[in-house]
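INTERNAL AUDIT FORM
Audit reference: QA-55
Scope: verify that the stored structure record matches its stored sequence.
Auditor: D.O.
Record contents follow.
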Amino acid sequence: MSKIYLAMAQRWLASLFLRVWRRGVMRSGMVTGLLLVVLAGGLSLAYRERGRGKIYRLKAKISTDRVDAPVPRLGGQEAMVLTRIRLTGGSMPEFLSATLLPGRGMNVLQIGAYIPGKGEVNLIASPTLDSAANVMSGNGDDANGMQSMAMGGAFEIPWSGPLWGAPSHEVGKMSLDWRGHVMTVPGGAGGLAVGGLLLEEGADSAEMTALPDGGQAKAVFHSKDFGVHWPSKTDVTMTVLLGSQWIEITVMARNMGDVAEPVGIGWHPRFAIFDGNREQLRLHLAAEKREDVRDRASGMPSGVLLPIAGTAYDFTGRGGVALGKMDLDDNFTALRRELLGNFAIAELSDPTNDYGLRITAMSPTIKAFRVDAPADADYVSIGPQFNLDDPLGREWGKGTDTGMVILQPGQTTQWKVRLELYSLAGNPIPD
């Protein structure tokens, strides 16, 4: 009998609890309110933790834990990869990632993007990290880091482009003089040096920071005299910011020595050509002159700047000009500046795939765009830089501004560029 009474009591208590819960809680709306408070608190916490980078670090840790194969260490340092998540249902092109090599002068080896109708693509003509690691050995064809000029987007410091001097008694080097200071730099036949001196240098410090919609990478190089008795000691700081529609790159060079020094900064990105559309690609370039050369084989400048208006090299039309079968290996200068912001702009557009890349030179110290676009290549390079070719050469007349910035002790110069990705349909350029 006691068991029967116990069961009846349990049923009565359960029925009483349900009546109280339904009348006092469910009908009062308290549950809905409590659920909304918990949900809002969870979202707020997640957003705050994402901003602090904890979610990013957790994802990075999980990713690291799952990877068994060794990560390639180009130049002795692991690649830095900035990533962001594509917007769900997005109908516009957007950047997804940037792969940087702090062990190789911060070369921008790859830029990932999403292009509607084409999917996820690589915007830079480059091999994979593993393949790049095999090529960037520091030996043979990669002596002085020269393979960095054949892939990705290399930074050229303390000058950009070709530089001529006298062949040195040291094999593989050349000498040149600047205000009585003799420098001996790596060079090839005929006393030619290209690419600057940072191509194979490793960063002294490098760090990444997660942001709500992208990230930032920063690397510092204590370059001293670049190992070739450059006139002074130099610190170089590079910062790369990744967002959905833009990538912003800033390079700062500071004279840490006690004498003046010349500094030129440039970037040499090799943008990929998709589907064999090279002839249809359109180039817009806000420049009024280009360098004349003594002959195409050597590329040595004559010291004369030629007007481009009305010539085959005139790409100033707002809609740009189709590249067709034209070979380009030219340095364009006398840049037209936008009225607002004092910026100079170059654009490469692909009508077939409905996207364009806009390069905005945000620093007034950027005086030229070097365009390297062989007719039979799979890339087009548009490089914003401080200086003309052979900026320390005697072919330039007295008083000619060749673009090199003269840094006094303690002074800093800045090179800043914004790369934007846009839809031609959503952002049409009038002809």
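Auditor finding: record pair retrieved intact. The radius of gyration is 28 Å.
Action required: none
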